[in-house]
Amino acid sequence: MLNPATAQSVIDHALSLGADFAELFVEKHLTSSLNTISEKVKSVDSGIDFGIGLRIVFGGKVLYGYTNQTDAGGLKRIASNLAARDKRNRLNQAVAFDFSVMKDRHPSSIVLSKDAAIDSKVEYLLKADAVARSVSDSITQTRGYCTQREQAIEIFNSEGLHTSDTRNYIRAGLTSIASDGTEQATGGWNDGGLLGWELNNSMDAQFTGEEASRQALVNLGAKPCPSGRMPVVIGNGFGGVIFHEACGHLLETTSVAKKASVFHDQMGEMIASSVVNAVDDGLMSNEWGSINIDDEGMPTQRTQLIKDGKLTNFLVDRIGSEKTGYPRSGSGRRQSYRFAPASRMRNTFIEAGDSDMDDMIASIDKGIYASHMGGGSVQPGTGEFNFAVTEGYYVENGKIQYPVKAATLISTGPAVLKEISMVGKDFALACGMCGSVSGSIPTTVGQPALKVDDILVGGNA
Fold this sequence. Notes:
The chain is 19% helix and 42% strand. By secondary structure, the chain is an alpha+beta fold. The strands form 4 sheets. Strands 1, 2, 3, 4, 5, 6 and 7 form a 7-stranded mixed sheet that branches. Strands 12-11-10-15-22-21 form a 6-stranded mixed sheet. A 5-stranded mixed beta barrel has the order 9-16-17-19-23. α3 (118-134) packs parallel to α4. The mean pLDDT is 97.
């Protein structure tokens, strides 16, 4: 996408200004989105974006700029402007590029540059809608979506790196809205991955519609949730959002390097119950948060974060490695060329254990089963969180009694890790988008069902 001779001259110019390191991130991004409301197509949109990000490092100081132009003169002017206050005599010489392409672990076939497959996507969403509304007369509306992206990147840096990659993302889902005339409730289902619209081969519109409406109807008939400290079983899949938000971010050198994480000085220490094993894995085939290389050009890897309760690794990007001394983990990620990379998660999850769901529920005298989790808020640095339960049930005397609504789980990441006493076998993953200093990126969360012995539950009973 960018002439290597142009890239070489720009990087050499940045080094002539005294920079310790220089990098060009080139990106071409195709997007397509489709939205439906009940049986009608609401919108079909598409777009193309292209740009180049230039990162220059002086010691521990990172300077960043971007442009849509590819001419060497314009890129050199950006470099000169960025370095205006920091320039000094040259310290380093540019290394000749050694082009390499990493093995593609995530094959895709129905990709945007070949076929947007709009008719097939409309067919899927409208079938899911018809199924969802046929479940009950109480289902008043559905909202469907399918988003697809194709991101081609090329990276050059002053250490001689020249590499490229193409990433294909797809995600589709449906939300059902139920009403009894006075109250409304919602439910939903979605799936996605690092692949093309061949995802359709593994998605079932019948299941999507039925599951979205099932959740909406359960929530419509739910009772107010009791509040107080109690044991909670958190369901598999998207239940892992709590670990991601309240703990995962604290293990990124984005916060560790600034000592803004409570875990910054606890490497090798027990930070969780001994039944907890947590991983961030960029290698998983066609998963939503996977990558071949990170946005600094490093091959991705599997990183064991917690082993038997002990902190074993952080997620480390280039700058994080320089500041902390920990080795890079292929975790430098960014939303687009408009952002400098930072240490970020990929597919982050708690590994499966050996407990049975029935035993977890049976062990509760009075508590909550949070089968599906939603969004919430997290306090950076401490991991204090407040997460909504989108489908939950009251448990008493070891049995599920009735569905509850308006439940929230309130704690801190460090505290909840130590309160996990049972980890199930029913491991599952779920798609999500994660926002941080380098923008919004696709990440996967996951876990089996697990039991937290003591956590504050907010409710309105």
